[in-house]
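Example record for the data management plan.
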Amino acid sequence: MFTALNILGLSIGLSACIVISGVVYYEFSFDRKLPDRENIYRVVSDFVYEGRESLNGGVTKPLPEAIRAQVAGIKRVVPVFVQHLNTAEVSGGDQTKKIEEPEDIVSTDNTYFSMVPYHWIAGNSRAALSKPDAVVLTQSRAKEYFPGVDLLSLIGKTILYNDTLKKEVSGVVKDLEGPTSFTGKEFFAIPLKTYSATEWATTNGDNKLYIQLNPHTDRGIVSDRINRILKNKWNVFKDEPFWRTTKVSNRLIAFDDLHFTPDISEGVHKASREVMYGLILIGVFLLLLASINYINLSTAQIWQRTREFGVRKTLGSGRLRLIGHVLTETFLITLLALCLSFLFSKLIFFALKNIIPEGAEQYLDPGSISLFIAAVLILVPLIAGSYPAYLITRVNPLRIIRNHMLLPRSSSLGLRKGLIIFQFCVAQIFIVCTFIAASQIRYLMKKDPGFNREAVLLVEVPWKLRWKEQYKSKQFSLINELRNVQGITDVSLGDPPLTDGYSSSLFSYTDSRGKKAEGQLYRKVADTSYLNLYKIQLIAGRNLIPADTAKEMLINETAVKHFGFKSAEDAVGKMLDDGGKKLTIAGVVKDFHSQSFYNNIVPVSILMEKQDLATFNIKLSTEETGNWQTTIESIRKKWSQFYPSHYFDYKFYDQHLESIYKQERNISLLINLACIISVVISCLGLFGLAALTAFQRTKEIGIRKVMGATTIEVVQMLSKDFMKLVLIAIALGSPVAWYVTNKWLEGFAYRVPVQLWVFCAAAATAITIASLTVSSQAIRAARARPVDSLRNE
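Corresponding structural encoding:
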């Protein structure tokens, strides 16, 4: 039984470590084959307004050429501009293949292929993008566009984009191997052009820029020179409101850090270095807990194997041979547990497939984590087997032959109690973190955001149709049709109230005394049904009047305070200046959350911009929930009448909200899993110590039974010492748990308080689990016949 528990405990701990090592190895493997990566940097834009910093992964389009001309010490300047196209059309013989919304298309130049190590199947890196109508394809994209065609024969083939843009294939490259940040599959040549002054003031996250420095070039000097170029160009706009209130600069991010910049949102998978280090720490703790568990179970078993080891010493086994025997046993058990852990890790990957990054599972094979396997097979036997091996060497064969069992000294028992305290201390930390994380997630999902989101469907008009002439007004015709669908209580066109993105503009207000107040207003576009659908309270003034362009606006209470109005009523009728355009405040609405609960409520404006109304907000009847699917099917049919070429894609507002807090839910799930593993491993260790204690006190229990002690009294006697250990662990772990959870919650502007009941509940959970674990051994010892334990006295 003890061997089985040892294997189970180690395999559980090792499986968690294997999954963690696979994820961590995957995240740290991005672009590892990129040559000279230590000299490559990404140029990003840094905006600071009212003390709030915002990073944008893009730059102004004219910047690459300016750097080439004016900044020394740079080996390569590599622009990579993302392209968004509607169609790609490929003709071959009598057949024409049309691809809707092709992805992963970028514009660049030949320096890109000099920096990134592609293997060329056709064409070459020096001349592939020398012509303005050239396009280079990756092997996977070439096979998608030209199935069954020899890749070497693709040079000169044409592809028609957006029905008018003709490109000629000038090269085919192999797809990059391994995880990479370079996701382009079609490469256009950047056209030569002269940029206007206004294009220096436009920053787009799709316009990425890499620079490769010469060896020994000072990064700080290059950064200063780039910002000097930008400052000279931006001086033209220094009197405009945005540039007067916003500090803008460019920053160089080392390529090794680029994958670990989740605060730069650009539609590619990224990771947090802090989260990775946290996972590594969790893995180390779980492996340490598994090793401690092995020590406790092994030492519990040793005292029942003293006769075996006494005979071995009598037959001539020396100290080193006994130690080698124990370490070999530990090695074999570790090897067996490691084999079993690979099976468990597959199950964990399957269970967590929605939160583990795609591609990480390929790093689970023994070849990818061979270093981890070698470390486990060396370190775990040494850590877990050394102490049991030491105890074995203390066996006295003479005492064994005389029928005296070698019982553990109080010092060795004290060490094992210390290990149990450590195990339950870690378990207590995880239990508290589990409770706090669950409470915060529940709070995020249940807290009143200031509007009614119940039974609201969100449907977006496809972006590529919004500006096509034949689709420009179809959403307004469709919304009239939807109002007649049974099961729909209201419909509105407008931005969802709470989103993970935002648009803002600098507004100003000048009072009658000439005093001027400025501030950013976060913009929401909406129609006249918006307030009623979401039950956003209008506290002063009136609702918006239908209009094609914005002439008036609604603001929230925070905006009233921001611009210094005496009250909501005082703000009504006043005019705000939006870069020269005057907008009248028609009304004031009650504050609602427009961003995640990481942020405080910000000043918000609601405007009527007809051309930007592209999201349907559909309120379903809450009295007919059983008919929702019928209603949704009716909406789908209406949709197909107006947008026949595009799939009807919808989500409930609650699903939209869950996607905003996806990272927090994933963290909570990982903490839950770590908590379960740590508790299971800790209980296995406690089980071993309970078995050892019961064995050590066998004769004492027999005497107490003879003297009239009941089973309950014996169980209480054995259990109380273990409860003391658990209570000490709770006392030591609770302050650490309080610190960790408070640091995590500090990131939220709105959060649950860390209350005493959480620690009490966590303590009660730990005590209950420990009691159930110990009671099995205690009851077994208490129910044993006294005559068996006293036979040899």
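Summary line stored alongside the record: The radius of gyration is 34 Å.
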